[in-house]
Specification:
Chain B has helices spanning 60-67, 90-95, 113-118, 131-144, 160-173, 190-205, 217-223, 246-254, 259-263, 314-322, 344-349, 359-362, 370-382, 390-403, 420-432, 450-465, 477-483, 506-515, and strands spanning 22-31, 34-44, 49-53, 75-80, 83-85, 98-101, 124-125, 128-129, 178-182, 209-213, 226-231, 234-240, 280-287, 291-298, 303-307, 329-334, 337-339, 352-355, 438-442, 469-473, 486-491, 494-500. With 520 residues, chain B is an alpha/beta fold. In chain B, the strands form five sheets. A six-stranded mixed sheet of chain B has the order 6-9-10-3-11-12, sandwiched between helices. Chain B has a six-stranded mixed sheet with strand order 18-19-20-15-21-22, sandwiched between helices. Chain B has a four-stranded antiparallel sheet with strand order 2-1-4-5, covered by helices on one side. By secondary structure, chain C is mostly helical. Classes of the chains: A mainly alpha (354), B alpha/beta (520), C mainly alpha (395). At the B-C interface, helix 11, helix 13, helix 14 and helix 16 of B face helix 1, helix 10, helix 11 and helix 18 of C.
């Protein structure tokens, strides 16, 4: 908006502005601004600070809170949600949304439990569940891209469909007694200092790492960001918009199914009512992690931190004992509000600056 | 209309020519009920800037879209370097060496300059994107074009002009043999256009064939070597720019004499009586970061022009007068009474109307009918509790559709289906229905065809003759001087002069805009 | 067609059919018809009505009674969606409203008195208004995306409701609430009458005044609407308050139905049902033009489906599955691309007639009569075109 902005560096009659003196703050600011995901870097830092503050406050307030294992348990207890949030991040980065993920988690648990009960070998069950989740995501992606329907409404239909299939397979809860599943559930990865992580948590961290790589170092990943920035531009630039858009829903479906497997390992049962509202937790985690809901800005690490913040709040309220469980919901709501308002304010400032 | 083609002096193109890099022949595209293109041909030669000319609806953008693989064509052939091609998608065309820069920059504002340049063709090392190599490549391309843009900066942090140059850099990076520039200059100021043309010329020297579309005749004559004229989906002719005088070009484009535009030269400037209270008097009106405190006076029956480059504050000042943005300093008086313009509603209550420069974003309510659009401002002023009676509304709508010659004359047509010029007429009518006493027109004739342009200019003159006060903002100085009684010149967010149009020359205004020191 | 409408302003009669065929409501009506037809064949008892003690009973009555809360919310949701918005928090608002009402009744000195009921209802409705104002504030003043602004209350709302009920399911008996839950007016269930009245009022309010067009204008292009002088911000604010208000009333209904307020489960997923009803009815989530009729049909489809599954003796687990299938089919039929493909198969004539409302001559304008002398009526009269007649009508 300012005149000096609209002037070109070499426009006749307007000498280029002298370069700003490089102090370290300036350098840091420039680094933050220069990374393509600049504004989300700031948001992610904010989320990280919040996590540290929350955890620190817990350590001071409750004597058993400060142990490293408590921190690691955040990963152990929320492994499925981390995976879910990763898939959701892909979708939200393109400007879409996936409401079906909670239902697909339930579908994953029910499928796993019932197939195991029917005597399928565990590896085959795992493949079947992951394939089903991906297939569902693929179908939703096709409907969204091919038929140009709204993601909100398509994934809502997907949610009903997934839950419906759950109920059709089995209404009541089915216990899981398979050796592989129970082994994964019971055994842990020992870490120095007598701490440990579950296999699920390790897997979740691997998923985060792979996702970060895919988003930043592959053309598919850059196309995800490009679509979030401007879908029509991405198409005119000759990028594979259709394939990528369908792809993110496949990834989300896959992640939801994987989340379902992790959840069934965590809880050792399959039930059609598992994971109700889990998609909202995933969305909340992604937003708190600094990803813009309109797409194009955000980091998958932020979503990990977002899940951990949610986990910390739950842990704090559990530790307190005097607080009732509904405070969790209220706190998450308030936190969501704070982050959304902050995003809005920074967006406003950026808007007036350009 | 078909015999009109014969009016144009046939300019046979000299035969010794290099092979065209692109040859489109006999292109025909049938849309439901309409032949959008009918047997159109186009040749692009390496190392030439080729202008594609025509009114809105002539088929320019359809032809470009046929070339770049956005639309399929029903008949005809496209050859690239002598080989017949049929592009299914923009990606295909790009891969074959045809790059397009659109009017609204089609890049991703959330990514960096580097990423926008290499997106889709990122250099890779062992399967993953090599960020360093990407940056080097972007830097090299920018250097080739002598552009001083930080490749690591986020694209959205740059003004449109720079974004457009980045789009061209992207085209250069693809080693495009053909570069299509679809109205790249419509939102640039003179300096930015000069910079763009510098880059275009350097590409021409490198043998790139450039297809250039613009509404600005000056620019077309400045930059192009050859032009193809279309009218109503048909080819009128291909000419060397040097061989085609402007009047002939305009005649070829619209198929009739441009008499009205010349006639508008008003006979006598409307005088202001001494001591007359101005309809609107703003003093020290300004907004931090947008426009320095400025004085504007508009008397009844006068047309005041705001002249200046993009970013000079002309739009910003107009928006303050309408309360679209809030002023941080200054006073406004309407008919001698002090008023506070805090919102569009407040301004409308004072009898002020405002046609935004951003027709699509701030004017057209596309999914509503022509009727609803026409009545919108009047209805909003009446409040939702007092709907306009059906029959009265129908009468008003029918009258304005007829009076402003809106096509198609169907009140129930959705506004988004009308051409730009007709949309603009509907928006003008929307305001005329509120019987404003002061009409603020921000670039009312930008991006619309010459026929509609003449109609709007004539209407403005007529409204002023009937006593309405008009503030007229335009990037075209000739238009401002022709229509306005006085001209307020802005530069660098400041008013630098307030002149009587009758004793001001075009050169004088240009000089003021360039130097801006006539204040003292 | 164009010429005729120019000569005689108003809707050309022959255009009505074409317009109806283009209207997405048509598919919703067709789907409902198919559902009812299916019931007629497979499930004849579905249509039997009987009058008992002057009250109407039967499956159809159940459909309209059970649909009442969803439909009530969907009506408000239609207006919200028309302004380009969405409200995910209506389920939470519903729960809060019910919780507030029953907590008041339970805690009152005289739980069965009319005064207690009035107080409970008043407070519940007031809570709805406050929550709606909160959502409206976030969306219209702070400028947060509606989906995320209302997600805040959706998340926190059930927590608030549990806070109100202290985590318990509150049961209470009060004649007013009993009447609201199971009473009849003129032989029809009270809830049906209330919903019908609200529907009628909203229909009249938006279509007989200019509110509907202004809402649509805000939904299509908020910036243009603001510059045209439309109070875009207050319209947006108002629709959020309104949808929360009807959600609060729906909360009273749902709570009265079971004589218990369950903060956790009351109105769970009702926001999704309401949004579905709106979208099935042909109102686009992208905002703009809306259809209340469509919403009613959409809500009826959802409820008929549920009732059909139940009356056929199928386990209610299948409801969601059937819902998903029907929804997917309706959406497929409404999808612009699918409809375009269907049209193409029907032949080129149909294509030309129904091509997305493009007027026949929207393309290149015939050049010859391009300029009749410009504002013709104004010539010589010394006035802006059209001024004299307006003064008579408008002043």
């Amino acid at each position: 908006m300012t005149v000096s902005d609209t002037r070109l560096p070499e426009a006749p009659g307007s000498p280029p502005d002298p370069p700003a003196s490089p102090g370290w703050q300036e350098a840091a600011r420039r680094w933050l601004r220069s990374t393509s995901t600049g504004s989300s870097t700031v948001s992610v830092l904010m989320t990280a600070v919040l996590l540290v503050v929350l955890f620190g406050a817990g350590s001071i307030r409750y004597e058993n809170f400060g142990y490293p294992q408590v921190a690691l348990n955040l990963l152990v207890d929320n492994a499925y949600l981390i995976v879910l949030a990763v898939g959701m991040t892909f979708v939200i980065l393109t400007g879409g949304i996936d409401l079906s993920s909670g239902a697909v988690v339930a579908l994953g648990t029910v499928m796993a439990a019932s197939l195991l009960q029917a005597g399928w070998p565990a590896p085959l069950v795992i493949v079947a569940v992951l394939a089903t989740g991906s297939l569902l995501g693929w179908l939703m992606g096709l409907a969204i891209h091919g038929l140009q329907l709204q993601p909100f409404i398509v994934t809502l239909a997907g949610m009903f469909l997934a839950r419906g299939i759950c109920f059709a397979i089995s209404g009541p809860s089915i216990p899981i007694q398979d050796d592989l599943f129970t082994a994964v559930a019971i055994n842990v990865v020992e870490l120095p200092g007598g701490t440990f992580l579950s296999y699920g948590a390790v897997l979740a961290l691997v998923v985060v790492a792979v996702a970060a790589y895919v988003l930043h170092r592959t053309r598919f990943g850059r196309t995800v960001y490009a679509i979030g920035g401007s879908e029509s531009s991405a198409a005119l630039m000759g990028l594979a918009v259709g394939r990528t858009k369908v792809g993110v829903y496949v990834i989300s479906g896959f992640c939801s199914a994987l989340g379902g497997l992790l959840f069934s390992v965590y809880i050792l049962s399959g039930w059609s009512l598992h994971g109700i509202g889990l998609e909202l937790d995933a969305i909340a985690a992604v937003v708190i992690g600094g990803t813009l809901l309109v797409g194009g800005r955000g980091l998958v690490v932020g979503s990990l931190l977002g899940v951990l913040v949610l986990g910390t709040i739950k842990a704090l309220i559990d530790f307190d004992g005097g607080l009732n469980s509904w405070w969790t919901k209220i706190t998450i709501g308030v936190l969501l509000l704070v982050f959304v308002v902050l995003q809005r304010l920074t967006a406003r400032r950026a808007g007036s600056a350009s | 209309m078909s015999p009109a083609a014969a009016e144009v002096p046939a300019a046979p193109v000299p035969s010794p020519l290099p092979e065209p890099v692109v040859a489109m022949t006999g292109i025909t595209i049938q849309f439901p009920g309409v032949k959008a293109l009918d047997d159109v041909s186009l040749r692009l030669f390496p190392g030439e800037v080729h202008a594609l000319m025509g009114e809105n609806g002539a088929g320019k953008s359809t032809l470009i879209k046929a070339l770049t693989g956005v639309y399929p064509y029903d008949a005809g052939t496209v050859t690239l370097g002598g080989v017949e091609q049929r592009f299914a998608t923009p990606a295909d065309a790009q891969a074959a060496g045809i790059s397009t820069v659109y009017q609204e920059v089609n890049l991703c504002p959330n990514l960096t300059v580097t990423e926008n340049i290499v997106l889709g063709r990122e250099p890779r090392r062992r399967g993953s994107i090599d960020k360093r190599a990407s940056r080097e490549r972007a830097r090299r391309v920018l250097r080739e074009l002598h552009l001083d843009i930080d490749p690591r900066s986020v694209l959205g942090s740059h003004p449109i002009a720079v974004q457009q140059l980045v789009a061209i850099a992207r085209a250069v990076d693809t080693d495009a043999r053909v570069l299509v520039l679809d109205e790249p200059t419509s939102s640039l100021d003179a300096g930015e256009v000069a910079e763009l043309f510098r880059v275009v010329r350097s590409l021409r020297e490198r043998g790139v064939a450039i297809l250039f579309v613009s509404h600005f005749l000056e620019q077309v004559y400045e930059i192009s070597d050859r032009m193809t004229v279309l009218r109503n989906g048909r080819l009128v002719g291909e000419h060397r720019t040097a061989d085609l005088p402007r009047t002939d070009l305009v005649r070829a484009m619209i198929g009739r004499e441009l008499a009205t535009l010349e006639d508008l030269e008003h006979a006598a400037p409307r005088p202001v009586e001494d001591g007359a209270v101005p309809r609107l008097a703003a003093s020290g009106l300004g907004r931090r970061g947008a426009i320095e405190p400025a004085d504007v006076r508009v008397h009844a029956g006068r047309v005041v022009g705001l002249a200046g480059l993009l970013g000079s504050g002309r739009t910003e000042l107009t928006r303050l007068l309408f309360g679209a943005d809030r002023a941080s300093t200054g006073r406004v008086e309407v008919d001698g009474r002090p008023v506070r313009l805090r919102s569009p509603r407040g301004a409308i209550a004072q009898g002020i109307a405002f046609l935004s420069e951003d027709r699509k974003g701030e004017g057209v309510v596309g999914d509503l009918t022509v009727r609803d659009n026409l009545l919108l401002a009047l209805q909003a002023r009446r409040g939702w509790l007092r709907p306009i009676p059906r029959r009265a509304g129908d009468e008003m709508v029918a009258r304005y559709i007829r009076a402003l010659d809106v096509r198609p004359a169907d009140p129930e047509a959705l506004l988004r289906n009308l051409s730009g010029g007709n949309q603009q007429k509907v928006l003008l009518a929307r305001w005329l229905l509120t019987e404003p006493r002061l009409l603020l027109l921000d670039e009312p004739t930008r991006g619309i065809d010459i026929g509609a342009k003449a109609q709007i200019q004539e209407l403005v003159a007529q409204l002023a003759a009937e006593g309405m006060s008009v503030v007229f903002v335009s990037a075209e100085l000739e238009e401002v001087l022709r229509i306005c009684d006085s001209v307020v010149v802005l530069r660098d967010r400041q008013v630098v002069a307030d002149l009587d149009a009758s004793d001001t020359s075009l050169d004088g205004v240009v000089d003021l805009i360039a130097r801006g020191n006539a204040r003292d | 067609m164009t010429d005729r409408s120019a000569a005689a302003p108003g809707r050309p009669v022959d255009g009505l059919l074409a317009r109806a065929r283009r209207s997405p409501v048509l598919w919703a009506v067709a789907a409902l018809a198919v559902l009812l037809l299916f019931n007629l064949v497979a499930n004849p008892g579905f249509f039997s009505l009987r009058i008992q003690d002057g009250h109407l009973f039967g499956n159809l009555v159940n459909v309209v009674k059970n649909v009442a809360p969803v439909l009530l919310i969907a009506v408000g949701m239609t207006l919200v969606i028309a302004t380009r918005g969405i409200d995910l928090s209506v389920g939470a608002v519903l729960a809060i409203s019910g919780s507030v009402a029953f907590t008041v009744v339970e805690g009152a000195a005289d739980p069965t008195s009319g005064g207690t009921a009035a107080l409970a209802i008043g407070l519940a409705v007031a809570a709805g208004l406050v929550l709606g104002a909160w959502n409206g504030f976030l969306v219209s003043v702070v400028g947060i995306q509606p989906i995320i602004a209302t997600l805040v209350l959706m998340t926190a709302g059930r927590g608030i409701a549990m806070l109100v009920t202290d985590g318990n399911i509150v049961t209470a008996e009060n004649p007013v609430f009993d009447w609201l839950g199971g009473g009849f007016v003129l032989g029809l269930p009270v809830q049906v009458v209330i919903t019908a009245l609200v529907l009628l009022a909203v229909g009249l309010f938006t279509r007989r005044t200019a509110l509907g067009v202004l809402i649509e204008a805000v939904g299509v292009n908020p910036a243009a609407a603001r510059l045209a002088g439309v109070r875009a911000r207050s319209i947006t604010f108002t629709v959020y308050v309104f949808v929360a208000l009807v959600a609060a009333v729906a909360g009273l209904m749902v709570t009265a139905n079971v004589s218990a307020a369950d903060a956790n489960r009351a109105g769970l997923f009702i926001e999704l049902d309401a949004i579905l009803a709106v979208v099935i009815g042909g109102t686009s989530l992208a905002g703009g033009r809306y259809s209340l009729t469509g919403t009613v049909v959409g809500a009826l489809i959802l409820q008929t489906l549920t009732t059909t599954v139940l009356t056929m003796g199928l386990p209610d687990e299948y409801i969601r599955l059937f819902k998903a299938v029907v929804i997917i089919m309706v959406f497929l039929l409404q999808a612009p691309r699918v409809r375009a493909a269907l049209r193409r198969r029907r032949g080129p004539a149909a294509t030309a007639g129904g091509a997305a409302g493009t007027p026949a001559d929207a393309g290149p304008v015939p050049p010859d009569p391009v300029r009749p002398s410009v504002p013709e009526p104004a010539a010589g009269t010394g006035s802006v075109p059209g001024r004299p007649a307006e003064q008579g009508v408008l002043r």
